[in-house]
Amino acid sequence: MTDDLEPTGASEGTVAHEPIGDPGLPEHQWRPTDVDADLERRAERQVSTLFGLGALLFLGFCVAYFTVDADQTFLGWNGQNFALGATFGGGLLLIGVGIIQWAKKLMGDHEIVEERHPSASSDEDRTAVMIDVNAGLNESGIARRPMIRNSLLLSLGALGLPVIVALRDLGPLPHDQRRTVWKKGMRVVNDVSGTPIKPEQLQVGQLVNAEPAILFEEDADGERVLHGTEALQVKSKAAVIVVRMRPEDITPSKGRENWGVDGILCYSKICTHVGCPISLWEQQTHHLLCPCHQSTFDLADNGKVIFGPAHRPLPQLPLGVDSEGYLIAMSDFPEIVAPSYPELARDQKKLDKNS
């Protein structure tokens, strides 16, 4: 039985087997595209068409992103999500099907037997691998099939367009959004019911989550009514809290003596650390706590930071009362409403200069 075994440079104590000359594989069957030039060209056109359609779907993704309304519905689904998913997923599917068709019909088709070898490859093995890789590239026909190569490159290049376009959903940088929708005369309304607030409705120690009335008013005064995603974006940036304290407990800084109404003050709901919504209110101490990283602001002392990682006071909105007795804003926030970022100090100086 040992006549069929022969050492071939194996390590001591082991015996290497010579490969079987005929492992019993059936006779190779050539594919139609291997023997018929017309079928080969037809397959090449099919693969190129799949890649080209994939590129068109990626372009369709970009078109749908800008043209399909985010609030539109289609068969009960969000219309924009459906359009983006269908075009992007369809493009990936067509590329995958095209590559499979390319491999099945046009790439080299023959059996390969590889001997087992030690895990540490020798220089000769590495050289052989590169020879095989180059041979595979030659057999794939990518060099002599420019139609397939170019259409694949086109499709893969178009694949990057949806990625670039989708980055827009990360939103504008904070220093490009220096103002909120608040302006003089705009009513402060409850963020749940949308009803305007009168000073006598608030008790000492009470906190109310509020927002600008523009989100709920009709377009009676020429103002553009906001709906859907745009309204939610404006609401999130302009969200405020309204608190009432005893006037004698408040220590306003110079120039802010008239920013409140009978002890009622209004501050941004956005923490100046990383932008978390903040409304944990301590009535007795007049402190407002952020639930994310425990930054603490003293609302009786101009929103001053007294604890935590925040470095800027909470922006305060100056308040007044209109002719019907409802709380209104007297202007927009004088400070930038946003989490802290390196360019904030520079942008705040520019904002103060232009104000």
UniProtKB/TrEMBL annotation:
The Swiss-Prot or TrEMBL record lists the needed cofactor(s) as: [2Fe-2S] cluster
GO-annotated cellular components? plasma membrane
Classification via InterPro entries: QcrA_N, Rieske_2Fe-2S, Rieske_2Fe-2S_sf, Rieske_Fe-S_prot, Rieske_Fe-S_prot_C
SUPFAM superfamilies documented for this protein: ISP domain
Transmembrane regions: 50-68, 80-100
Q: Does the keyword Metal-binding apply?
A: yes
* Lineage top rank: taxon: Bacteria
Rieske domain span: 259-328
Q: Which GO terms describe its molecular function?
A: 2 iron, 2 sulfur cluster binding; metal ion binding; monooxygenase activity; oxidoreductase activity, acting on paired donors, with incorporation or reduction of molecular oxygen
Q: Where in the cell is it found?
A: Cell membrane
- Where it mainly occurs, coarsely classed, is membrane
- Among its keywords, does the record have Metal-binding? yes
Query: Sorted alphabetically, which keywords does the UniProt record give?
Result: 2Fe-2S, Cell membrane, Disulfide bond, Electron transport, Iron, Iron-sulfur, Membrane, Metal-binding, Oxidoreductase, Respiratory chain, Transmembrane, Transmembrane helix, Transport
Q: Topology versus the membrane, per the UniProt entry?
A: Multi-pass membrane protein
Among CDD domains, the record links this protein to:
Rieske
The positions making up the signal sequence are none
Q: What does this protein do?
A: Iron-sulfur subunit of the cytochrome bc1 complex, an essential component of the respiratory electron transport chain required for ATP synthesis. The bc1 complex catalyzes the oxidation of menaquinol and the reduction of cytochrome c in the respiratory chain. The bc1 complex operates through a Q-cycle mechanism that couples electron transfer to generation of the proton gradient that drives ATP synthesis.
Similarity field: Belongs to the Rieske iron-sulfur protein family.
Which PANTHER family is this protein grouped with?
CYTOCHROME B-C1 COMPLEX SUBUNIT RIESKE, MITOCHONDRIAL
- What name appears for this protein in its UniProt entry? Cytochrome bc1 complex Rieske iron-sulfur subunit
Organism, by scientific name, is Aeromicrobium terrae
